[in-house]
Every structure is written in structure tokens, then in C-alpha cells.
Design goal:
Helices cover 50% and strands 23% of the residues. It starts with a helix and ends with a strand. A hairpin with a 3-residue loop joins strand 6 and strand 7. The protein is globular. By secondary structure, the chain is of the alpha+beta class. The chain binds adenosine-5'-diphosphate and magnesium ion. The site of adenosine-5'-diphosphate (ADP) has 23 residues, from helix 4 and helix 6.
Length: 229
């Protein structure tokens, strides 16, 4: 027990340190990107230079995104739990995602009952479902469906909790991949960070919920969340 605690302390310290590091790298990165954008406006810049500048900008953007995702994984904000109407949170998110090309051809059925309320941090709730919907859409990559069901269920302790099930008609994944999806940096995507589900898992846990993923290669994936009601 004592050594377990020490290990937890060490991991927390390491998380703190790497979050600090990520934060420190973001500032000079912003300065690099800002300076390059200014230099790119100079009259003597020719098309070859422009190409190089755009590579620098694309890559600084990518690095910044990676650091931002890493920060939100390594150092999630303390949740500010409030009563949330989940149907509405997801409807708002779908409206936001309507212009995202990754969701072209994807039909989202929000079947969460209009009166289902969960106790969850609002921004983190959006972050959770944003990640899950984008993953589902990326697995569909074309025409397909995402169905979101929700219900109040009895929890083992006797109280009630919300059970949310997100099913997609995407590519699914192998059982080996299913075992690894919550590992930070596990990705099968070109340009993926592999931090989405690791962060989602952490957020769900710190808000007092739990989650699991089932998948069948070629058929699709099911994500089940139990959230405090
Ligand atoms: P990323 O999206 O950057 O790859 P994630 O942590 O969000 O990172 O997901 C990790 C991996 O889990 C993905 O690369 C993919 O292989 C797999 N995955 C996640 N969600 C799904 C899904 N709905 N269907 C199929 N595979 C998925
Ligand atoms: Mg993802």
C-alpha cells in the first residue's frame, strides 16, 4: 500500500512536470509562428519562400495542437460539476460539428431523453462528446450513422446513474486495438495524437463516471458511459 501511494505521488509529480514543460514550450512556439507570419508578408518573399513559410506554420500549428491536447490530458481542470441537460449539450455540439468536413455523410441520431440530467463539468462534457463523435465519424469515413441512446439506470450501490451508449457504423477495430484505446499516444491514424480517448477516460473518471468500449472489426464500435445523474 505504501509503495503504491509513492508510485501515485511520483506519477502525479511527473504529470505536473510534463504539463509545465508543455506549457513552457507553447509560448516560444507562438512567438515563432507570429514572427514567421510577419516575415512572410515582406515584399521580397518569393513563392519558394512562401512554401517554406507555410510548412513552418503548418508544423508549428500541429505542435501547438499536440501540446494543447497533451496539457488537457496531463493536467485536466478540476471539474465544476453542474446539472446538465445532456440532450441539449449534444444537440449544441451537433450544430457546431455540422460544418466539420469529417462529419460529411454522417447522420447523428440524438436519442437521449429530453429530461435526462447529469452532474458533470459543462466544458469537459462537450470535450468528451466532441472526441467520441469525431472518432466515430473518422471511423465511418463517408456514409454512416452514429446513434446516441441514454437512460437512467440503477447503479450497484442503489442510487441512479445515466447510461449513455454511442454506436457507430464505422470500421470497428481489432480486439488488440480495443485493449489499447485508452493508452495515451495510441493511434492508428495518420496525424492522430492518440490523446483523445486517454483524456476522455480521465475526464469521465474525475467527474465520478466510468466508461467502456466494445468493437467489432468491420461492423462498428460501441462506447458505453455511466455518468452521475
Ligand atoms: P486519435 O483519434 O488521435 O487517433 P484517440 O485516443 O481518440 O486518438 O483514439 C485512439 C484510437 O482508437 C484511434 O486511432 C482508433 O484506432 C481507435 N478508435 C477510437 N474510436 C474509434 C471508433 N469509434 N471506431 C474505431 N476505432 C476507434
Ligand atoms: Mg480521437
Amino acid at each position: 500500500m505504501a509503495s503504491e501511494l509513492k508510485r501515485a505521488d511520483r506519477l502525479a509529480a511527473l504529470g505536473e512536470l510534463s504539463a509545465r514543460m508543455a506549457h513552457e514550450i507553447r509560448n516560444p512556439l507562438a512567438a515563432i509562428s507570429g514572427s514567421v507570419q510577419l516575415v512572410a508578408l515582406r515584399p521580397w518573399v518569393d513563392s519558394k519562400d512562401e512554401r517554406l513559410f507555410s510548412i513552418i506554420l503548418r508544423e508549428t500549428d500541429r505542435l501547438d495542437g499536440l501540446l494543447r491536447d497533451f496539457l488537457s490530458y496531463a493536467k485536466p481542470n478540476q471539474p465544476d460539476k453542474v446539472a446538465l441537460n445532456l440532450h441539449r449539450v449534444i444537440a449544441d455540439l451537433c450544430a457546431l460539428l455540422a460544418t466539420d468536413p469529417r462529419l460529411d455523410g454522417v447522420e447523428v441520431d440524438n436519442l437521449i431523453p429530453a429530461d435526462l440530467v447529469v452532474q458533470f463539468d459543462k466544458d469537459q462534457c462537450t470535450q468528451v462528446f466532441w472526441n467520441l463523435l469525431v472518432n466515430a465519424a473518422e471511423a465511418i469515413a463517408g456514409e454512416g450513422r452514429i446513434r446516441i441512446d441514454g437512460a437512467l439506470v440503477q447503479e450497484s450501490g442503489g442510487g441512479r446513474e445515466a447510461r449513455i451508449i454511442i454506436r457507430d457504423s464505422g470500421s470497428g477495430m481489432s480486439q488488440d486495438d480495443v485493449k489499447r484505446v485508452f493508452e495515451p499516444f495510441f493511434t492508428t491514424k495518420k496525424g492522430g495524437t492518440g490523446l483523445g480517448l486517454a483524456t476522455v477516460y480521465r475526464i469521465v473518471e474525475t467527474n465520478g463516471g466510468r466508461m467502456a468500449i466494445n468493437s467489432s472489426e468491420g461492423k462498428g464500435t460501441t462506447v458505453t458511459l455511466h455518468l452521475p445523474a
